[in-house]
Every structure is written in C-alpha cells, then in structure tokens.
C-alpha cells in the first residue's frame, strides 16, 4: 500500500527528516523515517556575453549564466544552434569560438533544480558584431573623441578671432577721427589766400 504526505504552505524550512509510525491491524508499530527536501522555483536566469578576443575572423567569447539567489542544487546545461567551437559543459560559464561568416548562432542556458527550471538565450553573432575589427580597433575611441574636441575648439577660436578683428576694423572706420583739418583743393587754398589779403 502506498501512502503520501501533504504539507500545506510548504517552505524551504520544512526540509528535514520526518518520522512516521505505522500501526498494523495487530497493533504493531513500524517506524519509518524519510527525508523531505523543498526547493525554491528557479528564477529567470541572466545570460551575460563577453567578447574576449577577435582574431583571424574568429570571435572568442565567454557566456556566463547566473541565477539570482541560486543554491548549490541548481545545475546548468547548454544548447547551441549553428556550429560554435567549444565544449558544451554543465557549468555556468561557457567558452566558445564563432566564425565571422557563420550562420546566426543562438546559445541557450538551462538552469534547473529538481523542482523547476528556467532558460535564457543569447545571439552570439550579434554579440560578436560590435567587436569586429574596424576603426576603433586601430585607433581607440577616446583618441577619436579627443581629436574631434580639439578640432572643434580650434574652429571656435578661429571664429572668435575673426569676429573680434572684424569688429575692431569696423570700429576704426566708423569712429570720427579727432580734430583733423579737412584737406582743401588747390582752388580753395588759392581763394582763401586771396581773401586773406
């Protein structure tokens, strides 16, 4: 005959060794001990991808699958589409290599315990794309940013200098000169000289 034990509103604190005494029709007691384990449901795993290196059209990356508040009973397994190079181990961290022209490769982490499971996935081709060699692998991004800022500062300085020079020049031309005698024509000078006699 099979029997069952039901614990309402179960929690992890209910884990432990239980003893039950069974009495048969003759009144003989038979003690039976059994262990009860209660597991929390596995929360949604978090999958972090990190490109370690890009070399010779191959993207070397690391994937880390973590479960918030996970205990020792959580186990991990991996599955990937495409043909990534690397062993799919039963560990939270996975190291793979993806060819630059490979078909889209999606890796899925499955975190589970005896009560439940959760999965998270990542597109490796998309993770490797921003790390592909380009301008920023030759020249660091901060050097490009500093060059642009320097060019902008020089441009602003030139504009300010031109504006001031232009305003000074306008000021000299528009300002009335001090007391300067007006020049006279030859005829005016002769006429002035004759009237003065």
UniProtKB/TrEMBL annotation:
The chain crosses the membrane at residues 139-163. InterPro entries: CD2/SLAM_rcpt, Ig-like_fold. GO terms for biological process: natural killer cell activation involved in immune response. It is found in: Membrane. One of its GO terms (molecular function) is MHC class I protein binding. It comes from Dromas ardeola. This is SLAF1 protein. One of its GO terms (cellular component) is external side of plasma membrane. The keyword Transmembrane helix applies. It comes from the Eukaryota. Its main location: membrane. Keywords: Glycoprotein, Membrane, Signal, Transmembrane, Transmembrane helix.
